Amino acid sequence: MSLYNFTDLLQVAKQREFKALGSFNLHCLEMLPAFFKAAEKTNSPLMIQISTGTAKYLGHRLLVDAICSLSASKNVPTCLHLDHCSDLEAIQTAIDAGFSSVMYDGSHLPIEENIANTRRVIDMARPRRVSVEAELGAIGGSEDGKVVALEEIAFTSVEDAKRFVHETGVDMLAISIGTVHGLYTGKAHIQHQRLTEITHATGIPLVLHGGTGVSDEDMRLAVRSGIEKVNVGTEMNVQWVARCKQTFEKGKVNDSVRNFLVPANDAVTDVLVEKIQLFR
Asked: Are residues 140 and 150 in contact, defined by beta-carbon separation less than 8 angstroms?
């Protein structure tokens, strides 16, 4: 089974009565079976996203080959997405390796430069039927070592979003409407009116980054208001690490490592299943 781009996978999701796709951060290969187990349990297509750091750690071809193999054997339609990348050469490497979706993050740049670079990425991606995500506005928190302080958060304006989509033709747009990347202990305050206005102005799938701290009620409302891709990463990582700390601490040096990892993977599956149910 070949990998799907985001646009095609979203159509599969909607045929299965999902309103949005979760896009789940893979941090290591040991986690991968847990992702497919969650997709099978929920009859959901699967979008897996990789940071540039994880791609360098594991290798692009290993990721593509492993995910393609599992997608085929499990019969789960799957998209492999490069998340938050500002390096055009790294994006080209991912496309050449077989990634089916990429994100160019130029949110730190003036809008004119962000538009110009996003168009370059689209020119690279279109011939390979690779979908392209861009970001407009500054989302706070930490993502793969990049930190945006709370005082540097910039909410996405309706006018800028409309211009950006018109001038780039991007497939999906990540917007800043009140969420924060990383481990967020408070409650995110989603600007639902801003989201609704951007949805009407752009007419394309919008992306919610920083889902940690978003209540189930807010998540469901955001999905109904135009969010069609939701990034989920921190909650899975926290659960996996916490469970591994428990099992490794109790284990013996001659125990099989898989016995330490199975409970961690089960915890990841539980998080994914819970999140996927919010997107119906």
From this structure: yes
CATH of the domain at 31: 3.20.20.70
Average pLDDT over residues 6-25: 97
The identity of residue 228, as a single letter, is E
Q: Is residue 113 part of an annotated ligand binding site? A: no
Which residues are marked as active site? 83
Neighbour count for residue 265 (Cβ, 10 Å): 20
pLDDT tens per residue, range 62-110: 999 999 999 999 999 999 999 999 999 999 999 999 999 999 999 999 9
Task: For residue 232, give the H/E element and its range.
Answer: strand 227-232
Q: What is the mean pLDDT of residues 263-271?
A: 96
Q: How many domains does the chain have?
A: 1
Judge whether 179 is annotated as a binding position: no
53 among the known binding-site residues? no
88's tokens: 């055009």
Is 84 assigned a ligand-binding role in the annotation?
A: yes
Asked if 196 and 182 count as a contact pair (C-beta separation under 8 A), the reply is: no
234 marked among binding-site residues: yes
Q: Which pTM was predicted?
A: 0.90
Per-residue pLDDT reduced to its tens digit, 180-227: 644 444 556 788 999 999 999 999 999 998 766 788 999 999 999 999
Q: Give the range of the structural domain holding residue 155, as residue numbers without chain letter.
A: 6-277
The pair of three-digit structure tokens given for residue 54, joined into one six-digit string: 């994880």
Residues 6+ apart with CB under 8 A from 229: 6, 10, 20, 21, 22, 23, 47, 133, 172, 205, 206, 207, 208
Listed in sequence order, the residues at least 6 apart from 259 whose beta carbon sits closer than 8 Å to its beta carbon are 247, 251
